[in-house]
Hints:
By secondary structure, the chain is mainly β. It contains no helices and 5 strands. Helix content is 0%, strand content 62%. β1 (2-7) and β2 form a beta hairpin.
Amino acid sequence: MYEHFFQCPYCWEEISMLLDTSVMRQRYIEDCEICCNPIEISVRFQSGELQEFEVSSIEQ
């Protein structure tokens, strides 16, 4: 597992997330732990190293 810190695209608070390094490409939606808005998360690992991490707001 890999802990990654980033800013929520809604409330701009810094939050952390545990990422599974055994899955090379991941895309999912998770709610911000501060403001509860849904965030789309896209992650890519290569050889256990984080290569790409993107978050975006989901317009409701």
